[in-house]
Amino acid sequence: MRVVFGVLGPVTAWDAAGDAIALKGPRHREVLARLIIARRRVVPITGLVQDLWDDPPPGAVGAVRTFVAALRRALEPERPPRTPARLLVTEGPGYALRAEPDAVDAWRFERALSAAATMPPQDGLARLAEALGWWRGPAYAEFADRSWARTERSRLAELRLHAVERQAETRLALGLAAEAVPDLDAHVAEHPWREDAWRLLALALYRTGRQGDALAVLRRARTTLVQQLGVDPGPPLRRLEADILHHAGHLDLTSGPDGAAARVWAQTAAVYDRTVTSGARARLESTVGLLRSLAVTGGAGLDASRKHRLAAITAAEELGDAELTARVIGAYDVPAIWTRSDDPQQAARVVAAAERTLAAIPPGGHEAARAGLLATIALESRGTRSARGPQAARQAEEIARRLDDPALLAFALNGVFMQTFHRAGLAPRRDEIGAELVALSTRHGLVAFQILGHLIRLQARGALADFAEADRHAAAADRLAERHERPLVGVFTHWYRALRLAAAERTPAAEAEAAYRDAIARLDGVGMPGLEHGLPPLALLCLRLRHALPAPTDEHIDWGPYEPWARPLVLLARDRAAEAAEALREVPEPPCDLLFEALWCLTARAAIAIGDRQAMQRARDELTPAAAELAGAGSGLLTLGPVSRHLDDLDDALARHGGAARSRRR
Questions:
Q1: Which residues in 602-614 are b (16+ Cβ under 10 Å) and which e?
Q2: Backbone angle region of 137, left / alpha / beta, with phi > 0 → left and psi within -120 to 50 → alpha
Q3: SS3 of 97, please?
Q4: What is the pLDDT of residue 150?
Q5: Residues 547 and 509 sit within 8 Å (Cβ to Cβ)
């Protein structure tokens, strides 16, 4: 069970479902808080005793052990009796809390601040807002008087104040001065000694046209600093006052191209807000255009884009205008490379809305709108075995070619790509789609689909073991991503390079694993749960099997949607052959996606080890069309080596078990 800890407020813990865990009494919470502050390091039991009591009573050591035992039961309720704890562990002379790096809100907060500093302003602002939202009160709130907590509480409080000011500064850089004023006003009232907060508030007021209020704030800052601290304002505040009095040009917005861009954005948005009425239907279509741009920013932007997209569709349907709804649905032509939906329930709702709209569009004409709806159905049906997805993809492509509409054709081809996973061995077909997308998008300036085409070809050429060509497409995608600010592209190219290293026969397992660990770290905060959930352990499992190592036996690994295919191998590694055989019999058909061949290879490995002839024959039949490919490499993320090697192993095993392996020739 995954446990998440909160110290940005009262100390608490939540289980995987988000429910608060009962942590017994205040002493139990204090032990937990003290171990969290230690950051995975061991705290001697004698140190815990000294921290918990000013004058330790007799039996204090035994009491601490009792507190620890109760915490273990609360944090790991499913741990079998007399088995070692995995979270709150005994080590040497004391205890340590082995929480994961993202399992403590204070640790996540620090990482978020560091990440925000390297992001474009819009992304950084979203990350800062998210991080500040994790605060529920003062850090380690109930332990304000404890000496062991004092330094950490002060450090976290300072980080929070810095984040508030960074958030305000970013808003100013983006031309959002009016949004910055309320938070800054409260901030200086609560922390009047922070000169930079006064400076930012005055600047924000000036940029909203409130010059008198800005000067009044600076006078108030001077009075407060002199009366409370006995010091005069520093040079930044004095310079700002002089600049405001002289209407210095650099105060209008940050200098340079970023400032100009922010000014244009702020002015245009303000004019749009004034001139287009709140109930205008044009707002819905404009909203989808913004959501489409937001989706390629990653992280909070991608997540928000998904949520608001469905709201826009619902709003359009409520107006009863099928043509408007078709435009709202079809305008979200965001290129998609990963074949597992980030939110299957939402995808199903989008498909249902698109089908209703298709049925409601009057017959005759409206062909472009119809194609956009069909392409949406094809995309959002990815990874399923529905016959409707491939059918919609074919229809969308046919209409787009007939209309000779490049953008519509690129969108339709994305749908076609998503529906080319119904069997193994289709990497050459996907390579053709990628090549057409690159050529089409290059001719017509469709940058997003040009990047998609390179990523598709990266995957396909990797599956065909043509790494020289795959490298070329990875480099091209990276160049375009850098030029056009598409941060999510780097996630895929970084994973590809880990795969590239792992696929080399002579790469040591430890070196490949280090590359994967680095790639895994890049998934944090990208906003793609369909990609990140379960993928990290699956990639490491494939790496272990490539090096003839057993599956990991850790019961706490979250395999996500790949658990049915990993489970037989994990049970075999635990010497539980009978359970592994039962698990193998329950393994479902792999979804029709980029990991189709990889999951069949996992089934093949388990079937060979168990001696299940029926499962071996099925795996062999399914994998034979991909005999010339690298298993899993078509994902651009992981590999189990040549499919032909797995087929040879299946043939040998079938011969030993009396099976009749059929010819691989087609």
A1: bbbbbbbbbebbe
A2: left
A3: strand
A4: 92
A5: yes
Annotation: CATH topology of 1-165: Arc Repressor Mutant, subunit A (1.10.10)
Tell which residue, 614, 557, 556, 560, has the closest CA to residue 584: 614
* 407: amino acid identity, one letter: A
- 84 contact partners, CB below 8 Å, separation of at least 6: none
- What is the per-residue pLDDT across 493-550, written as a single tens digit (0 to 9) for each? 999 999 999 999 889 999 999 999 999 988 877 778 888 889 999 999 999 999 999 9
Q: Is 466 left (phi over 0), alpha (psi -120 to 50) or beta?
A: beta
Pairwise CA distance, residues 577 & 586, whole Å = 14
Percent of residues, the chain, with pLDDT higher than 70:
95
> What would the two tokens of residue 356 be?
């209703």
> Are the C-beta atoms of 496 and 632 separated by less than 8 Å?
no
What is the Cα–Cα distance from 307 to 305, expressed in whole angstroms? 6
Rounded to whole angstroms, the maximal C-alpha distance in the chain is 94
Whether residue 601 has pLDDT greater than 90: yes
Can you tell me the distance from the alpha carbon of 206 to that of 631, in angstroms, rounded to the nearest whole number?
61
Joined together, the tokens standing for residue 439 give 């050529």
Strand-strand pairing, 12-14 and 4-6: antiparallel
Predicted pLDDT at 556:
86
The CATH T-level fold of domain 288-490 is 1.25.40
Q: Are 636 and 458 in contact (CB under 8 A)?
A: yes
Read off the DSSP letter of residue 642: B
* Secondary structure element (H or E) that encloses residue 96, with its range: strand 94-97
pLDDT tens column, 400-431 = 999 999 999 999 999 999 999 999 999 999 99
Which fold is adopted by the domain 174-275? 1.25.40
Q: Quickly list DSSP for 542-574.
A: HHHHHTTPPPP--TT---GGGHHHHHHHHHHHT
CA torsion sign for 526, 493, 346, 485 is: positive
Other residues' Cβ atoms within 10 Å of the Cβ of residue 245: 11
User: Is residue 222 exposed (0-12), middle (13-18) or buried (19+ Cβ within 10 Å)?
Assistant: middle
Contact between 597 and 605 under an 8 Å Cβ cutoff? The reply is no
Buried b vs exposed e over 99-120: b needs ≥16 C-beta within 10 Å?
A: beeebbbbbbbeebbebbeebe
- Give the separation between CA 464 and CA 473, rounded to whole angstroms: 14
Q: How many of the other CB atoms lie within 10 Å of CB of 53?
A: 13
- The structure tokens listed for 68 are 């620890």
pLDDT at 267: 62
Quote the pTM value. Answer: 0.66
